[in-house]
Structure formats: structure tokens, C-alpha cells
Design a protein that fits this description.
20% strand; 7-stranded antiparallel β-sheet; alpha+beta; 5 helices; 201 residues
């Protein structure tokens, strides 16, 4: 299925009385039984003997970068990406919406910008380089611990691993929403609708 590419709305000015929020943590409206990947597992502070974090040469160009969030909707995440100036395509999974960055090399910048907006709702950055996968925890715009990729992916839905490995593309993903072309005004409308839906739950 092709990506839903919203058309630019033209006038990018927000109407009087509207402002861009600096805290979108209310978008993390997943049920308690649908946590962030690996959230129910202990988060190791030291490398696990069974699965030490992969040592990835930093000069290897990233091929895929995903930001896994607890945002309960692809449109809401695409809107958050638009406000954070992150070019990405968002899809919804049972563990939360995932942002597939248009530029994999912008993974840290994208994860930092989104986690700064989501504040209390941490995100996980997954990056694939030359067949190697790395996972990093981000919260409040700050990079945290490296995580064992196997732990993050152990309870993840299959589409997350498929996107990471490249066996599923955004063009083939269902209900994908791009942040490219979403104006600030449209992003605010999408976020307001998402917040209203979360309050009804």
C-alpha cells in the first residue's frame, strides 16, 4: 500500500489561541498491557554475558533507523515528527507507533528530538549498519543506555523486525503516514484529535 502523503496545507501560521506544545507525553496512550518493547524485562546497566552490545564501527553508514515509541497512533506520531522537524514515515504496531526515518544517518537527532517532545514517554532507537543492529534508549532528549537488540526485539511485533531488516518497506506497510508535507496547523489538529481519543479511553 502506498504511503499516505498529506498535501501541504499552504498557510503555515497557527490561528490565534493555538500554540505548539513542548510536551506530547499524553500521546503515549497505550494500554498497560502493551508496553514498549523490552519494557517488562530488566534493563541491564552492564553488557549481558549472553549478549554483549554489538561493537559497531561508527564509520559504517546506517542503512535503517527506526524510533520505537509508545504513541498510540501513526497519524499522531507523524504530526509529532512534523513539529520536531523529523522527516519520517510512521506506522502503528501493537507496541506503539514506529517512525522510519527518511535519512537513517539522522537517527540520533530524530530520536533526541522526538524524546524531547514526548518527555515522560521514552523511545528506543534501532539502527542497522552492515547487518549489525544497535539499540539505544532515549528520554527527554538525552541518549541513555545501549540495549541488547535481542531483548528489545524479543516481544516486538514481526513488522518491527521486518522493517529493520528491510524485508518490509514503507511502501508495502499498511496505513503508513508521512510527516513530510504536514504543516504546523495540520499537525496541531492531528495531535488535538489524538489527545481527545486518548481521553475517551
Amino acid at each position: 500500500m502506498s504511503v499516505d502523503a498529506p498535501r501541504p496545507d499552504g498557510d503555515d501560521e497557527l490561528p490565534e489561541g493555538f500554540s505548539v506544545p513542548d510536551d506530547l507525553s499524553s500521546l503515549a496512550g497505550l494500554d498497560a498491557h502493551s508496553p514498549e518493547p523490552g519494557a517488562n524485562e530488566p534493563q541491564p546497566t552492564e553488557p549481558s554475558p549472553a549478549e554483549p552490545p554489538a561493537v559497531v564501527p561508527q564509520d559504517e553508514k546506517p542503512q535503517v533507523a527506526l524510533v520505537v515509541t509508545q504513541v498510540a497512533g501513526a497519524e499522531a506520531l507523524a504530526a509529532a515528527c512534523a513539529l520536531a522537524k523529523v522527516d519520517a514515515d510512521a506506522i502503528f504496531t501493537p507496541v506503539g507507533a514506529v517512525a522510519v526515518l527518511r535519512d537513517p544517518a539522522a537517527g540520533p537527532a530524530g530520536a533526541g528530538a522526538l524524546s524531547a517532545m514526548l518527555k515522560a514517554a521514552p523511545v528506543v532507537l534501532l539502527v542497522r549498519r552492515a547487518g549489525r543492529i544497535s539499540a539505544t534508549h532515549w528520554a527527554n532528549g538525552v541518549q541513555g543506555d545501549d540495549l541488547p537488540p535481542g531483548l528489545v526485539l524479543s516481544d516486538a511485533p514481526p513488522e518491527l523486525e521486518q522493517l529493520l531488516l528491510g524485508t518490509l518497506t514503507i511502501a508495502d506497510a499498511e496505513n503508513a503516514v508521512t510527516s513530510v508535507g504536514i504543516s504546523r496547523w495540520k499537525a496541531m489538529r492531528l495531535l488535538a484529535a489524538a489527545a481527545k481519543d486518548n481521553r475517551r479511553r
